[in-house]
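As a representative case, the lines below give one protein's residues and fold tokens.
***
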Amino acid sequence: MQAYHTLVAGDSGGGKTTLMRQMQAEYNGLSIWINHTGADGLSGRHLDSAATVRSASEARQSPAVRLNWITSEPVETAREVRQVAHEYHDATGYPVQVVIDEAHEVLPDGKVDVDNPVKRMLHEDRDRALKVVIATQDPSDFDYTPIKQCKYWVWVGEWSVFHDGFLRYFSIPRDELPTAPYEYVVFDKRMNVLYRGETEKRYG
């Protein structure tokens, strides 16, 4: 999962953010968390291993390989993040991971234009060693076309009735899904189970 786009889904309180913090902390390259969840969301102290930045210039100047990029404009920030990621890879040869929680806000159903930077990262940038992790409580809020670029689909925690349409559309087997918070299952694009695990408490 280090090299390929990943979709993380599951109900509120299931452990998605905990898993993504672990993914950021353990990534073998530069990991940029686009933090657009506001005052009630993640802050620099929640991402202990990350340096907080608020602009492309701060990101370029930071020596850290874990960045918490705080923004109120996630789509425009994703455009800047994409450029910084390309520059970093061109200069170092190392891969870059971009993490976006509540990602339905940047890939909204039926409203994703051709030049959307997250859509372009998903469609065009894996050959430039750029990997995207997108997460949401309700994946039916996504535009389905770009999320089909995700090689791995991770379900964290229990599923709810409002997930039913999404599960049916993508033929995700309900009997394989977790039955408790902080448990997760990794599927491939054919919905074969690749891995089962629990999120590590130290990232909670």
Notes: The longest helix spans residues 74-92. The chain has six helices and nine strands. The beta strands are 6-9, 30-35, 51-53, 66-70, 96-100, 130-136, 152-156, 183-187, 193-198.
